[in-house]
Amino acid sequence: MHFDGGCGLRWRLSSRRVMSKGILEAEEQRLRREQEDLEATQVRFTAREVPDFVKKPIYERMRKAEEEKRKRSREGFAQKLVADQKPFSFVERERRKKEGIRQSARNARRSDEPRPGIFRAKPLPTQMFDPAARERALEEELYRR
After folding, report:
1. Calpha distance 124→49 (Å, rounded)
2. Long-range Cβ contact pairs of 9-13 (< 8 A, separation 24 or more)
């Protein structure tokens, strides 16, 4: 007799075992679930296509419109400023300068004569600095009360 340690015999007996109908169905269900799980995990992820409105350059259009509006307003202000400005004339400025110099020269010649509009203050009365006058004023104020 051949001795294989007892493991081989048990294995052979267990593999030959006849399974009941319920056990076979349960095993089939288990295998089916495993197969479904395996298929579910192997499904590839596909992202949706990016919507068209994302690709449209709306922001750029808005920025361009704002820039155009700014340019138009700047140009409008510049045109208004140019229209309001009077042309500058160097000749006119030089003429005014010369006239001012002539006027100051005339006034310098007349400075020898006394000017009628000069303010001359009258001298203060001497009573204002007299200590007795101050006392009299205080006394008069007391009598008024």
Report:
1. 102
2. none
Cβ-based neighbours of 133, under 8 Å, separated by 6 or more? 127
Query: Which residue is associated with the tokens 């409105």?
Result: 53
pLDDT, tens digit only, all 145 positions of the chain? 455 555 565 655 555 566 788 888 889 999 999 988 888 787 777 888 988 888 888 888 999 999 999 999 999 998 888 877 766 677 888 889 999 888 887 777 665 565 667 788 888 877 777 888 888 888 999 998 7
Query: Residue for token digits 């005014």?
Result: 96
Q: Which amino acid is at 137?
A: A
CA distance 51 to 76: 41
Burial profile 65-94: b = 16 or more Cβ within 10 angstroms, e = fewer: eeeeeeeeeeeeeeeeeeeeeeeeeeeeee
Amino acid, single-letter form, for residue 128: M
Classify the C-alpha dihedral 32-34-38-40 as positive or negative: positive
